[in-house]
Amino acid sequence: MAETTTDPVGHILLGDWEIKDYAPREAEAAELSAGGDGWIPAPAPGDTYLALHVAGRIPHPFAEQNEFLCAWVKDREWWWRTQFFAMKPGPGERVILTFEGLDTYASIWLNGSLLGKTDNMFTAFSFDAGPLLHDDQPNLLLIRFTPPALPVADKSMETWEIIADPIKESKRNYHRKAQFGWGWDWGPQLPSVGIWRPVRLERQRIAVIHDVRFSTIAIDPAARIDVAITIDAFATDSDSREPLLAMLQLIDPDGVFAGGTTLTFDGTSRSATWQPIIDTPSLWWTPELGLPSLYTLRVELAQGEQRLDQRTLKVGIRCIELDTSADPDEPGCDFFRFILNGVPIFARGVNWIPASSLVGATTASDHQALLADALAANINMIRVWGGGLYEADAFYDACDRLGLLVWQDFMFACAPYPEHEPAFVESVQREVDHQITRLRNHPSLALWCGNNEGQAVHQFIARMSGSNAPYPGDLFFQRTIPQALKTLDPSTPYWPGSPYGGPSHNSMRAGDVHNWTVWHGLPPVPDELPVGDFSHGPEAVAYTRYAEDKARFVSEFGIQASPAESTLARWLAPDQMSLGSDGFLNRIKDHPRDKVNAMLIPVTGLPDTLGQYVVFTQLVQAEGLKFGIEHYRRRKPHCSGTLIWQYNDCWPGISWSLIDFDRVRKASWFYVARAYAPVLGSFKTLDDGVIELWMTNDTRERVEFAATLTMKNFDGNTLWEEVVTASVPGTESRVVWRGEAARMAADPARVLVVRSNRFADNRLFFAPVKDLPFSPDEPEMQVQIADDHSLAVTLTGVGYHHFVHLSARQPTTVFSDNYFDLQAGETRTIRVALPGATLEPADITRGSFHR
Ligand code: BMA
User: Which segments constitute the Beta-mannosidase-like galactose-binding domain (predicted)?
Assistant: First the structure.
């Protein structure tokens, strides 16, 4: 018998389950209800593959090439069962069984009777379980998950062949199921199955709070708030004629009462609103603009003395707008920028993919740790990408607390969708209503976006074939979703797709852009090809081509890099730790597998060993993102955001991520943290031999600074120096200094360095790093034990060291800084910490880049 646990409001969580597999249609619910053996334990929420692994039936699906050994799982029928005690509902009561997420084609039996069927992993399903409950014996809940291939066997609309072949056969576009599970260009083909979100049993009496909506109407500067409460009064208590009352309380971030009211539901009224005015609100801000202040909203539903239901929400007072007005300084172009509480912001963001292919296995602490790391990298926006998941509540709660804005895609990606199938349309409608209602109160929610790359890829394919057929999916992105938002969340902006807008989707003149010129070699604007070479050669995909990008908002751009060597070693056998091994090559899901070579050749040259591959790919990714981000941020406000593809990984693969699956930060994480600092100093080289220093200020305050510009050779001798003082107003980006390269004695054998009291050091090389005379020796290193969990590592330059990095054995080791340059004679002390474990000097090694 499963032990029962309760959630914070006292509902019973059904978390202990068992699973068993059959050939499709082999087993019957009736016979399984009688018991039988061969069941293995499976926690819920959880994942079928992991349960099988723990039970010793399969090796870990992420290790070696076990992905292929696990391919049978998706073709089996999976049965999940649990038993629990519950009382039958008394007078005026009902018992509701809610499944927050079933993945995906489930039939549910309670005590042998069919309770219902589900077909959408993105929608919650609730059933009135009361009539089927047994008072006097355990209740048996049984779920059959049908293999996803069966319900779509007769469907014919094909997906596009743009990511990989296997997904075409999956007919993934017919499933309301995470699209990436069928394999993506950064993830394995391991479609998940099972109970991936909590299952709850709720005993309800007379009436419950059906919904609470909190929105900020205006801030001028007092805040006008709208709180809408809907109740579900399903039974009337015959003994009581008293009305139902909702008591509301708003508590400010310091815990002080900020307002309250009691709403009365008489007769047939089921909804009511409260519109308080908060005179001096503590607003919710992104980190560079202020604090992400959160209020607490408590709602209690009662009848007379009887408390019936309650909800507690963390809410934020803020207004978010998407400004797409004409840009007066770039005629013919429109802005695409977010305005938070009246302040135009630059979105320093990333794209988020699911934190594991085994979707039910991700925990709240996984989300919290990854998002805290995003904040530490000066990120202020996360795009939840459409090929993945609507994330768990813990994800959005963390974004609210940390001040991270969320760009939320609806879960559609890179495919036409069957808008002609009534059942599919109905399922999408339910999903959209459910997710909007679930997520709309989060102050972090900045944008709803229809899908990933649907309209743009359709337009591209249609133009190539001379067709002007509409995009199959428009029904959802032009009608279903915007109409639902109009009623359910009119105050959050909506954008129909990404990329979308302008004379063609992916235009630099309006809307958002995915820049895949760099890396994939794709043209940025399909309808008006700019002059240039769009191919896969080193010059065509070089990261310096970001400088040509005049987009308004770049919602995807990125470069692949290997995870840490230690991460690969945890998932591959020693004999697979080489560049040509099958195990290593299967970690690369983008094709051709040597695509990265075109990026490496001009910068680092090609690697001979796996160790070099790790360093070279991480270096090119880091330098490339730095180059791109600095360019885009200098263009502020004409460009008002960059979302790096991609932040995280769903397995230990080779991808565009900044942080690998084992949570080791790649070099790019540290480079991005510097390039995304709210106050940034960066160099721009012009064609006429002029070098500019720019200062980008994302804060609201004017920043005054002094900086020293130094031209040095790599031995450390200074050849030229100048001190600059300037100031830049809040939220602006400006050139603050300009000089002739010749006057500064610029030369490939030298480096231009800027050091300032207000922003991080920056530097400019005049030749590719493979040609620069970096020190062949590593810096001197001294390690001091600070305490059991941390070390102070002091590094001193014996020449010019580029890409200096410390590595640790344990993946969760945290470095206060990493992957930086060190000049001759310069000293830096790095704090290295391993929370919860002992760290020894021998755990740390150092390295740098030199050829
Ligand atoms: C875009 C994304 C993803 C993909 C990435 C890298 O297409 O939306 O689909 O993984 O580029 O190719």
Answer: 33-197
In contact, 49 and 62? CB cutoff 8 Å: no
Q: What pTM was estimated for this model as a whole?
A: 0.97
The domains found in the chain, sorted by start residue, are 4-201 (2.60.120.260), 206-315 (2.60.40.10), 320-676 (3.20.20.80), 681-771 (2.60.40.10), 780-847 (2.60.40.10)
Q: What is the pLDDT of residues 118-171, one digit of tens each?
A: 999 999 999 999 999 999 999 999 999 999 999 999 998 777 876 654 556 789
Ligand 1: list residues with CB < 6 Å. Answer: 184-186, 387, 413-414, 452-453, 556, 645
Which protein residue has the closest C-alpha to ligand 1 atom 6? 185
| Chain centroid, CA 21 distance in Å | 33
Q: Which of 186, 645, 649, 655 to mutate to test the pocket of ligand 1 (most atoms within 8 A of CB)?
A: 645
Distances in Å between the Cα of 650 and the Cα atoms of 42, 188, 357, 411, 654 are 21, 9, 5, 16, 11
Cite the beta strand spans of 551-640 per DSSP E.
554-556
> Cβ contacts of residue 44 below 8 Å, gap of 6+?
14, 15, 16, 17, 80, 82, 194, 195, 198, 199, 360
- Tally Cβ neighbours within 10 Å of residue 551: 31
Q: What is the pLDDT of residue 798?
A: 96
Reported as a pLDDT band with limits 50, 70 and 90, residue 530 is: very low
Torsion-angle region of 689 (φ positive above 0: left; ψ -120 to 50: alpha; else: beta): left
- Ramachandran quadrant class, 777 (left: phi over 0; alpha: psi -120 to 50; beta: rest): beta
- Ligand 1 mean position, distance from CA 659 (Å): 17
Report d(CA 268, CA 399) in Å as an integer. 38
Using CA positions, which residue lies closest to atom 12 of ligand 1? Answer: 185
Q: Where in 385-496 does DSSP place strands (E)?
A: 405-409, 445-449, 494-495
In this structure, what token pair is assigned to residue 722? Answer: 């100048």
Q: Residue 617 has what DSSP assignment? A: H
